Amino acid sequence: MWDLIFNPLVTLLTWLYAIFGNNIVVAIVVLTLLIRIVTYPLTAQQMNSTKRMQELQPELKRLQEKYKDDREKLAQEQMALYREAGVNPLGGCFPLLIQFPILIGLYQAIFYALASTPYQLVDLSERLLLPTLDSLIPLQNTWLGMNLTQPPTPPVNPTYSLALPVLVMATTWLQFKMTMPKTSPDANDQAAAMNRSMGTIMPVMFGAFALSFSVGLSIYFITSNVIGIVQYVPAVKRFLDSIFVRDAGAKKPAPALQAVTSSAPAKPTPAVTRTPAKTAKTPASSGKSYGGGGKSKKKR
Amino acid sequence: MQKRSTRWSFGLVLVLLLLVGTACAPSRIGVSWGVMDTVVVNGETRVLIGFNQHLNLLDPENGTVIPLLNADGQVRLDERGNPRRWDVDGTQFDNAQFFARPIQIGDPVQTLIVPSYNNRLLEIDVPTARIENPSGIPVEQHIFADVAHDDARYYVPLAIGGLVAIDKASRLPAWTLTSKNGVWAKPLLHDGVLYVATVDHHLHALDAATGAPVWAQPVSLGGLAGAAPLLYNDHLYIGSYANTLYKITLEGQIVGEYRASNWLWCTPTLYDGTLYIADLGGSVHAVNPNTMQAEWSMKVAERGIRPAPLVTEKYVIVASRSGMVYWLNRRDGITEFSREIEGRPEVLADLLLLEAKPEEGLVDTLVLVSTMQPSHLVVAFTLDNGRAAWVYAR
After folding, report:
1. FRET partner for B4 with CA separation of 20 to 30 A, picked from A12, A50, A163, B32?
2. Domain residue limits at B117
3. pLDDT at A258 over 50
């Protein structure tokens, strides 16, 4: 089943390799860029959803304290809060779930296309969907003196290729910093603690991947991270939102929710917590004010 | 409370990252496939199987690893009283791996010169299964392909960079062929000329003594050439990733082509004046070497066929990546019968035909198939009816 994703991407990568003068690095960069652009609406939706969930945290915390002895009531109240705010608690996961196979596919496509052993090349025979690409095999896999099919560690690659894992770590960290919403410094906040842990572990882990995987995959990591960083530069994000995201202009939170987000965490906010479900249909409390997505979007 | 929350979040992050790591990890597929050959030891035919870190000699009668014998012909025992087996363990020699056919030295065979993936030619004493020179004859690169040799030199194909000729006496490089990629096919030595197919789409003809080019230009094959050429009637026949089987004169002129339906990665098999070749699309072709026209062409397997066809008077036998072995009628290519290997492991290594030798206890002629799966590393079928005779699991 994975081959349905891998094989078109291997073919596309090989085709781009031919288009860009048999330069595999340019082909990797262009393909990564294309994929990131195509999946941008999903990325944006996921980030908006995460952001909205973050904004609801104070109110959720208040509910948890209030109903700490009644789990059933707590669940009901939480659902009511989500409904009124027009937030789907899983809204951040669905776009990610769709993107995940595509990104893995891209990653694996690079691995397959850079085949460097007899077994890998035999395997490639079932992956190229355009027969005209046969004559390009094997792809030229050296760049700046580095063998892209080998790990960056000497002696298989020059010492300077060790800069790549460092770049992978740096760009992973930077991307994480830019894309994760600001969290409260409150140490009890589980989400904040998790974000802090991820912010530390992820760059180290991807740096370790880059050390043991091939140089070609490090180039993919770096390109993907850099594109991710650029996507979140406010001017670029606004531009991309205007092209790819419906209702990109409607960013400002609704008054009711503004009240929630600006209130002290423990302070009750009757406007939100006690509003009956039907209130969600009024323009002021609908999800429209959150910049699109979820339930409210459909209502329009 | 705070500690528990942090522990939980840390654990969740770890699980998430492990999931991502697992999904993103490149598929750990192997380097190459195994290799089989026959070796006569103490007057008896044995099956040699090399794959990854082990090299073994098997008893063709039942597929077990043969025991080592002492000078008196008694089975040698280890310190626990168990019989010692003919097993060369590459993990004990700087992670040596075996994907190429050893060269047999002596009659009877006393020594195997074994190309190892870890950049060396190892020398193995056959009676004791001992590596005589653990550091080996060093070469600059990995070795995937079989090594050619004559009285003076070994001609070692390198995974990257070309080929090196090593002087047998001095054990030093005599000359090298530099290639953009590498050489993954056994060089063909004929009348002092070495024909070398390269991964970078060319066939070279070199003076075996000096390495000097014999042809003004190497012949372009339009695609990767992964298998050795076949010499027949003063012509070379070689397939490539351009889906084409070429007929080339010894002067380096392409004089005939046959278009297959997919990439070709095997040396054609010659039998009774016909060439048989299989492609990675799962088709088998019988080609007239004079006209380069198909006598028949048959789509046989759902996945590719890498090994060269094994041809007998009655059958053309092929094995595919889908773990199937097919017996085709040699006259028309129609599948007479097929056998499925348990678990459908990939078959990429060349098949081996083992003639019946009743005097050695081998009653049936066997077709040996080597898969990529240790539980079915070698599967033996009888030639006549495809009955599974034995399985060797490592």
Report:
1. A50
2. 31-138
3. no
